[in-house]
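does this look right to u?? nicotinamide-adenine-dinucleotide version
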Amino acid sequence: MVSTPDGTGRFAGQVVAITGAGGALARATAVRLAAEGAKLALFDRDTEKLAETAALCPGALTVPGDVTSAADMAAFAEATQAAFGPAHKLVAAAGILGKAGPAIEMEEEMWDRVFAINVKGAWLAARAFIPQIRTHGAGAVVLFSSTAGVMGSPTLSAYSASKGAVSLLTRSLALNHAAENIRVNCVCPGTIDSPMSDSSFDMAGTGAARDAREAMMLAKIPMGRFGLPAEVADAVLYLLSDSAAYTSGVALPVDGARLA
Ligand SMILES: NC(=O)c1ccc[n+]([C@@H]2O[C@H](COP(=O)([O-])OP(=O)(O)OC[C@H]3O[C@@H](n4cnc5c(N)ncnc54)[C@H](O)[C@@H]3O)[C@@H](O)[C@H]2O)c1
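got this back:
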């Protein structure tokens, strides 16, 4: 645990809402925040994975729901406030890859679904929680973009476009709320050792085809290895913390120098 001079965690007593909390990267983030004293409100549509994360974070509130539903997000915000008081911070991590394929071959329904979860979901979360955050006179939000939100992707075209949108939503929110001392940043993870990366390798096929995709992705990383969920969590905690007090509107790569 990183401690403050009085021996408490950096996030002691702070209420942090997390979407996509059943996922690998949000779970690693939640565990670290809990260890540093945060009170966590966790949201995911997958109730089993949500419960698994909550089991690692004593005292956490769990709220099942869909990030694309304004009603579900409002219910999450209300439940958070009822349990702990207004949120100080928000982490919007829910996201999906969608299907692989060139942009013009993407099914319309899939394109809409990827944008609804990755972009609208992040916007709905910000819309629901920033009014709570502003009651504290300061706060922080971290959205989840991707290196695929900076570079184009020949295969994950809807995903890449949606993450580019998240990076710019981050900047607009940062401008909207800078004068209120609410900082808004995003992380851009590269290929992280996680089920989502595994499923992106699986899109190449099975056996040798899958292995070749994994090896190709690995070869693109200057540091020569995939990242760890905990390494993304460390970046998120930095952006949420007072150590980043003058940092807002940033899309921080956590990618082993992939974007360098
Ligand atoms: N894993 C990686 O390598 C990687 C790389 C770059 C960016 N990212 C981004 O990081 C974030 C977290 O990724 P992860 O690896 O933890 O993925 P994950 O699939 O493990 O977790 C995503 C979570 O979001 C939840 N979710 C999806 N749609 C939802 C919806 N409509 N409503 C509520 N919850 C929903 C899922 O149930 C899941 O628990 C995502 O936004 C992803 O795009 C991941």
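Residues 15-190+230-253 form a domain with the Rossmann fold fold (CATH 3.40.50.720). idk if thats expected tbh
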